[in-house]
Amino acid sequence: MWRSVLNEVVTATAGYVGRRQIQPNERALIQKMGVTVLIALPGLVLHYAKDKDSPLNAMTMRQVLAHSSIDRQIKQFSLSAVLLDYFVLPHVRDNPRHAPGDDTDQGLEKPPAIATLTALIRDGYFSKAMSLARRKYDWEHPSTDSMPAKQRPTIAQIKAVAKAKFPAQDDSMDALPAISQMPSMDAQSGTIRWSDDAQTRDQEKRTYGASSVCIERKDLDLGLRFLKRQASPGVGAVSSAFLRHCFNKGVQSDKAINDYLLPFVNICLSGNLHVHAMETLLLTRLALLPKPGADFRPLGIGGALYRLIEVTVNKKYESSVSKKLRPNQFAVGVRDSGAILPALAQAMFNRGRKGHAKNCDFLFIDMKNAYNSIRRKCVLEGLRKYAPQLVRWFLYTHKTTTKLVHSSTAHVGECQTGVKQGDPLASLYFAVGLHDTLVKIHKEVKKQYPDANEAALAGAFAFADDVFLLGDLADTSKLLPWIRRVLAEETGLELVTQKCVAITSRARPDDDDVFDALRAQSVRVQRDGGVMMGVPFGTNDFIDNHVGSLIDNYIKDLQALQFFDKQAAFTQLRMCINARPPFLARCLPLERGDKHFKLFDEQVTQQILTIAGVSQRQRSTELVQQVHSLRSLPGFLSGTEVRHINRTEVRSMAIAKARISTLRFFVDDLPAFTGPVKGLWEGDFQIAAIEPTSSYVPEEDEVKLKERLRGHTLGNIQTTCTISVPGVPNVQPHFDADDRRMKAELDDHLYDANLVLHTRTLQNLRNSNNQYQTPIAAQVLSQSCPNSGRAFQMWPTFRNRIKDPLFLHGLRCQLGIPLVLPVPDDIVCHCGTIVRNVDLASPRAIDENGYATNKQPHELTEEPLHPLYCRYEGRAGLRISRHDKITKVLARRLPGLYHNATFRLEPRINHTPENRKRGDILITAGGKRIVLDVMVTCPANRSMVTKHMSQRIPGAAAACAVKWKKRKYLRTIPAGTEFVPFVIETGGRLAKTTSEWLDSFWKDVADQKTRKLRQASVRMTCIEIQRQLFFSNAYMLSQFAQHLTTTDAIQAAQ
Questions:
Q1: pLDDT at position 578
Q2: Contact at 8 Å (CB) between 54 and 48?
C-alpha cells in the first residue's frame, strides 16, 4: 500500500491519477497529501498492531479499500485522499496528542525500562539499546562522583537551546538566488530548460549550475545499501529499516524501485515536488546530545526518505568532490581517514620529539557551533566551484526555513542558516563552504617557512570542522587573530580560542616564550600527545594510558548486558561492544596498548561463558582457552565470529591493511609526508601459514577452503610455518588496483592463520585428559562447514528471536561446552542395543524410572552429546521430530530447484507385500523418479569416534550413514528410480554425495544468470536446513538438561 501511494505521487507529477488527467493545482494537492500519507502510514499500521482493542489492522484496511464504493472514491479523488479521510485523520481526531506547554514540568529523568530495551532490540536499534543500557547500569550502580537525577528540560529551555544553536539568517551572507527564477528540469531525462537568450542562459548557468543531479538505478542501489538501518527516524514513522524492507531484493522490489522509488527521487531532485510537499519532506526532529560542560550538540534528524535521497547523492559525488578538496580536507570521500590522520600526527610528533624538528607542532582550532553557523552563501559559492551539480538540490532544501520539531510534537525552532549536523550531505556542504578559507590559511602557514622542504611539511588540514595547523607553535600561534578575522568575514564562523589545543612535539623548556603567548590567548597546551580521530598519538606512556582508559570503559559496558536476554546480549556483545576497539588496534603499533587489548579479549570470553550459563567455578583453564579460541573463528570453522582484538595474526593483518590505505593517500596526495610516515613502521609482521603437502597439486576453479588447505585435511594440518609480511607496503603512485590485490593477500594470510588455530584447538580437544573432549572434537569438526553458526549472526528482531534455553544450548554446542559441568560420571542412559549377558532377574536390571537396563549404557563422561542421538523412550520422539522438520524444509525448497515436477512425502519404495520400506520424498520430473531419504547422524556417537575416527576425518559419520542407507535400500529400489540418501550430520555437515547432488542443480548450467539463481536457491536450501537443525539440536539438549535438573531436584527433596 505504501508503494502504491509512492506510485501515485509519481503519476500525479506526470499529470495523471489512474487514467484521469489532472490540473496543476490538483497535482500539488495530491503531492502534499501523498507525502503526508507516506510518512504517517507505517506508524498508523504499527499502532493498529499494538492496540489489541482496536478493530482496525492492516487486513481491515485492505478490505475497506477493496470495497467497490471506496474503489470509486480512489479513482475519483486518489488513494492518498481516501487514506487520509478514512484512516489518518480519524486516528488523529480520536488520539489527540497535544504538545506540552513551554513551562510545563517534564519531571526527573528516569532509567529506561527493560521493556524499552526489548522493544528497541526487536525493532533493530541495537546501538540505541546499548546506549540506554549503559545509562541504566550507571543509574542503578552510581559511583561516588555520579551526578544526581537531572530535571528534564522544559519546552521553553529546549527552545532557548535551539535558538542559541540555530542562529538567525544574515540578510547578506545567507542570501540565496530565488527558486522561482530557476529554470525547470525534466525529472525523467534530467534536461534543463534554459533561456533562449544566450546572455540570460549563461547567467542562469552561473547562478544555478550548468548541470544538475539525475540519479540512475545503480546510484539508488548504492544509496539503499549505505542507508543506515539503525538510524533513528525523523519526523514521521518511515524508518531506514522500513525502506530497506520495502525495496529489498526480489522481483517485486526490483519493479518498485524502477517504477516508483527512482522516479520519486528524481522528482524531488529536479524540483518538481510542490513546495508544500517538500516542506513536509524536510521536517526535522531536533535531538540535543549532551556535551561536557552542560553544553549540547544539536542534531537535525531528517526523515528516512529525505536521508535516502541525500545518501544516494553523497555516494554519487563524494569521490569527484574529494579530488578537488584534497589534500587539505579529509571528511569527503577520503577512504580510511581514521587511519591516515593518526599516522600523520604520530609521524610528525616523532619527527619533533626524536628528530628535534621545529615545524612539527599541532594547533587544533575550535569553531563555535560550526555546522549550524556557516553562512549559506559561502556554501553556495563552494558548490558552484567544487560540486555544481548539487546547486539545485541545495537551493531547494536550504532556500526555505526548515522547521525543527521536538519528539513531543512541539515546534521548538527553525534552521535558517548553516547546514544541519546529522544530514548525510552536511559534511560535504560544510567542507566546500570552508575550503577556500582553509586553503588561504594553509598558504599563510606555509609562508612562515622560507625553506621549501620545511614548508612542504607545514599547513592547515581539516576533517570537516576539526581544523588543525601543522608547524612551529611560535609561528602558528601568531596567526590566530588573523584566522579569527578571516573565518568571520568569509564564512561567518567564530573562532573560540578557549577551546583550541596546542600540542608540542618538540621538547621545550618550561620558560619557553611560546607558552606565554598561548596562555595569553587562552589556548590549552598538551606536551605529551593528543588525540586525532579518536586515536591517541604522542609518547608511548601517553598512548598506553589513553588506550587503557578507553578499554576500561568498554569493559564496563559488559555489565550492561545483564538487561538483555541471551540472544540480544550476545548480539550486543558482538556488534556493539566488541566492534569498538578494532579502530584503535589497527591504527597503533603492535606493542602499544597490547596488555589492555589482551585484557579486553579475556573479558569478552568471560562474558560469552556467562551468556552460555557457565558459572565461575565451572570455568577451568582448558575450557576458557577452548572457548577463547573458537569464539573468534568464522562460522565455517565452528566459531561465532566474535573476533579477537589482540591476537597477533588478526591485529597484524588489520594494521597492514590500514597501512596500505594510509600510504596510498600520502603517496598520491601528500608525498612530502611519505618518508616520515614510513619511518613509523619498523619491522615485518610474523603470521602462521600452511605448508603444502608433497602430493598437493592446485586444481583449476578450486574452492577457497581446499585451495588454502593445500592438500591437508581440515582440522588436521600437519605442517605449518611462519611467514613475514612487510611492515611497509609496496604502494606505487596512482595504482589502486595493486592495493586491492595486497589487501586480498592479507585476507588470505588471516584465513590460513584461522585454519591453523582451528587445527590447534581440535588437537587440544583430542589430546585432552578429559575423555569427553574427544566426542566434542568430533562435533566441532562436524560444525566446521559452510553456513555453520548463522544463528549467532541473526539479528534478534521479530521472527528471528531465539528463546533463552535454545540459544544457551545452541551456543554451548557451537563452542564445544559440555551439557553439564563438571561432567558427572554417574549419569548413564540405557538406550542402546540389547546386551545379552545381563541378568534380567537382578535388581539392577531396572533403573529408578522403571526401565530395563539390559541395553548398552551411554555414560555422559564418554558421550557428552548423547541427547542428540538418544533413543530412550520419551526422548526418541525428538529425533523423529528433527528428521521430519528437516524433511519438510527440503520438500518446501525443492520446487524452486525442480520445475514442472511433482512431490510426494513418505512414498513406498517398492509395491510388494514383503517390502514395507518408505522413503521421505518422491520426486517425479520428466519421466524420472528420484527417492530421497533423509537421515541425521551424530559424529559424537561413541561408535563413530572409536570406529570411524569422526574426530579426525571430516564427514566420516555422514559417509558411514550413506553406506548404511545404500545397503538398506538399493536392493529394493525399482529399475529406473534414482535413490539419493540425503545425509546431514548434527553439526550441519552434508555428506559428500548429498553435496554433489545439490551442486548438480547449478554446476552444469550454461546460462550465467540461471546458474546464479540456481546456486542461490541451493544455498538458501542449505541455510534453512542448517537453521532447522540448530533449533532441533538446541531443543533436544535443553530437554535433556531440564530432565537432569528435575531429577536432581526430586532427589534433593527426597
A1: 96
A2: yes
845 pLDDT band (50/70/90 cuts)?
low
SS (H, E, C) 9-73: HHHHHCCEECCEECCHHHHHHHHHHHHHHHHHHHHHHHHHHHCCCCCCCHHHHHHHHHCHHHHHH
- The band of 856, judged by pLDDT with boundaries at 50, 70 and 90, is low
3-state DSSP helix/strand/coil percent for the chain, to nearest 5? 55, 10, 35
Which is higher by pLDDT, 108 or 32? 32
Q: With beta carbons less than 8 A apart as the criterion, state whether 123 and 798 touch.
A: no
Given a contact cutoff of 8 angstroms between Cβ atoms, the answer to whether 915 and 972 are in contact is yes
**What end-to-end distance do the CA atoms of the chain give, in Å?**
63
H-type alpha helices, 768-831: 773-783, 804-814
Residue with cell 519528539: 407
CA distances from residue 861 to 772, 817, 969 in whole angstroms, order as listed: 5, 13, 35
864 cis-preceded (ω within 30 degrees of 0):
no
Average pLDDT, the chain: 90
Q: What is the DSSP string of 99-153?
A: PPPTT----B--PPPHHHHHHHHHTT-HHHHHHHHHHHHHHHS--TTPPPPPBPP
Q: Which residue has the cell 586553503?
A: 439
CA 141 to CA 135: how far, in whole Å? Answer: 10
Are the CB atoms for 817 and 142 separated by under 8 Å? no
**Cβ partners under 8 Å of residue 673, min gap 6:** 344, 347, 348, 457, 666
Grid cell in block for residue 591: 606493542
539 pLDDT more than 50: yes
Phi–psi pair at 386, nearest 5 degrees: -110, -20
For 21-35, 187-201, 890-904, which range has the lowest pLDDT when averaged over its residues? 890-904
**pLDDT tens column, 14-52:** 988 878 888 989 999 999 999 999 999 999 988 888 877
The closest alpha carbon to 441, from 532, 332, 329, belongs to 329
pLDDT band at 493 (very low <50, low <70, confident <90, very high): very high
pLDDT more than 70, % of the chain? 94
| 779 vs 988: CA distance, rounded Å | 9
pLDDT, one tens digit per residue, over 286-337 is: 888 777 766 777 888 889 999 999 999 999 999 999 999 999 999 999 999 9
- For the cut 50, the answer to whether the pLDDT of residue 836 exceeds it is no
964: amino acid identity, one letter: W
Kindly report the backbone phi and psi dihedral angles of residue 417, in degrees, each rounded to the nearest multiple of 5, phi listed first.
-145, 170
- Amino acid letter, residue 196: D
The amino acid at residue 162 is: A
CA gap 884, 775 in Å, rounded: 25
Phi, psi of 682 (to 5 degrees): -95, 140
Q: Residues 403, 416: contact at Cβ < 8 Å?
A: no
pLDDT of residue 457: 94
Is 115 exposed, middle or buried, given 0-12, 13-18 or 19+ CB atoms closer than 10 A? Answer: exposed
CA atoms within 13 A on the CB side of 258: 7
C-alpha cell at 1053: 527433596
Find, among 304, 311, 554, the residue nearest to 425 by Cα. 311
pLDDT at 287: 85
pLDDT score at 839: 59
Q: Rounded to the nearest 5°, which phi and psi values hold at 802? A: -120, 130
User: Cα 1024 to the chain's mean position, in Å?
Assistant: 22
Q: At a CB cut-off of 8 Å and minimum separation 6, what does 717 contact?
A: 690, 709, 755, 756, 759
Report whether 477 contacts 483 (CB < 8 A).
no
Q: What angle do CA 439, 492, 401 make, to 5 degrees?
A: 120
CA of residue 712 relative to chain centroid, distance: 34
